[in-house]
Amino acid sequence: MIEYTLERRNRVLVNTDPQRRCYNGCHFSSELQWTDWVVLELCVKESKVDSRIKFWKDLNDYAVESRGESARSEFRAVKNPPFDGHPCREDSDTRDR
User: Fold this and answer.
1) What is the pLDDT of residue 28?
2) Does an H or E element contain 55, and which?
3) How does 47-81 read in b/e, with b if 16+ C-beta sit within 10 Å?
4) Distance (Å, whole) CA 88 – CA 79
5) Whole-model pTM above 0.85?
6) Are 31 and 12 in contact (CB under 8 A)?
7) Would you kindly state where each structural domain of the chain is located, as residue ranges?
8) What are the residues whose beta carbons fall under 8 Å from the beta carbon of 13, sequence distance 6 or more?
């Protein structure tokens, strides 16, 4: 059985001014950059991946509607590697930790 990990990343405003100037909360120069991917869900079965990604995208669309474009996130599903001792395995002793 193939299982996936669902991940998300956000955009953050980064101060790009070499002198790091900030006036009353406004940077002299800045840009939006993507954060690293973070785990949302582990051990999602292949049959559930599309519905779970849709759930997270719908939830994010509501956040963007409420808080604005700065709340926008990206989502992806990453196939879990096949190896012994993986936390998704029922017989794994690491699952209860």
Assistant:
1) 87
2) helix 49-67
3) ebbeebbeebeeebeeeeeeeeeeeebebebeebe
4) 12
5) no
6) no
7) 3-10+36-79
8) 27, 30, 31, 32, 70
CA distance 44 to 30: 37
Q: Which amino acid is at 33?
A: Q
Torsion of Cα atoms, 85 then 88 then 94 then 96, to 10°: -160
CA 63 to chain centroid: 14
- Mean pLDDT to the nearest integer, 58-74: 93
Distance CA 7, CA 35 (A): 12
31: left (phi over 0), alpha (psi -120 to 50) or beta: beta
